[in-house]
TrEMBL record:
<protein>
    <recommendedName>
        <fullName>HTH psq-type domain-containing protein</fullName>
    </recommendedName>
</protein>
Length: 67
């Protein structure tokens, strides 16, 4: 059974990822650690990270809604 990521969860996940990032990069092991913290797969965390980075472009804010 898979866990659906809600908009609130995606936002919390994005904010946590941003706190761990430096110049838009995550350290080795950060995605795995954050996935364990949120009870998600690394693939789900990677998907939210990628979606956030793509939606940011040159802007300061990102859109990471689950839908």
């Amino acid at each position: 059974m898979t866990k659906q990521i809600t908009d609130d969860l995606a936002q919390a996940l994005w904010e946590t990822l941003l706190l761990h990032s430096t110049k838009g990069r995550l350290r080795y092991g950060d995605i795995t650690a954050i996935a364990c913290e949120f009870g998600l797969t690394t693939k789900a965390v990677t998907r939210v990270w990628g979606k956030g980075i793509r939606s940011m472009g040159d802007r300061v804010a990102a859109v990471v809604k689950a839908g």
